[in-house]
Amino acid sequence: MHDLVITSRRAVLPDGERPAAVAVRDGGITGVHDPGAAPEAAERVDLGDVALLPGLVDTHVHVNEPGRTHWEGFATATRAAAAGGVTTIVDMPLNSLPPTVDPAALAAKRRAAAGRCAVDVGFWGGAVPGNLGRLRPLHEAGVRGFKCFLSPSGVEEFPPLDAAGLRAALAEAASFGGLVIVHAEAPELLTEPAGPAYPEFLASRPGEAERRAVELVIRLARETGARAHILHVSSALCLEPLARARRAGVGITAETCPHYLTLAAEQVPEGDTAFKCCPPIRSGENRDALWRGLADGVLDCVVSDHSPSAPDLKVPDFAAAWGGISSLQLGLAAVWTEASRRGHGLGDVVRWMARNPAALAGLDGKGAIAAGADADLVAFDPGASRTVDASALHHRHPVTPYHGRTLRGVVRTTWLRGRLADGTPLGRLL
Length: 430
Description:
This protein is of the alpha/beta class. The protein has eleven helices and 17 strands.
């Protein structure tokens, strides 16, 4: 007897979208069957035309606990994730105190997260000046890879690497098969904004700064043989060097974020710093090019870069406000709204937001509906719509640039290893 069978006429499977019955026992998927041949189960759910997706995997989430839990914490972030169809997150190493730059700090993270998570949680480590010898111990302690910055991170306890430091981190990671993930903006091309308005902030972080940094990462990844990943690509100028590097066999991947795919600089309201992030939201034309990069496979993943802060840091001045967008609960609907308008299917969205992020972070058993995988599943109504009310979101502070926007696609139910993911702390630490 199985614990659960979920049937949908629109199950999004590795081999395409089709009617299927997914059988679950002891938290795992035992098989994917034709609807008429499903095994007996203690509970049966028939979704009809509501789609069944694998739980999303968001590999770019700033939880900030311990130390800045008043910005965001594991309980609130993971409740938001579950409500948005995300069943696994990977936490970034900065903005918490201490930052995750050694095994002791990772242990502190795990203690802070234990018993508080509504979804499964993995952890990135950090690569900063002076901790080269701690990368292997962090790897052995279970981090999924190492984040570094090439420009100032915004917090003094997580300083950037210069080119020599990046090369050393890549070489060290390559020695044990590790992954280095990079915030790629060339610091020499960044300036202080000339004023408080959005166009002045945008001009201070040009797309060429991203491209130059990406070219540096590509060169050093080629020289060291390391695996590298470019975080939150906002500029289409990065697509050509990334495509060329991949054709040449360099071990490099890249991601972008829902806000770069769904928002545009021309639409940013005056003084609304809920839209501020680094790198910045660029033009509508640039947004179209990012979609082409996704379609062509140059960009692999779409992840949130959920980076909340206390509301008092979002002052109405783009030069002074904290840079970070809160969208963990909204990413699936935001991306589907725009993807469906552009002719993409649910299978594309699952590839970008579940399968590829799981592969990036080495999360076996995540990101696909298949026998042997965890029964992390999402009932998603792709034809329904909902207007975003920030006050109804689960992350700690009701600040998001999507407030008041009508998004297509509604998460009806999320299951974590076959159990309802309703905010109860069922999540495991990976």
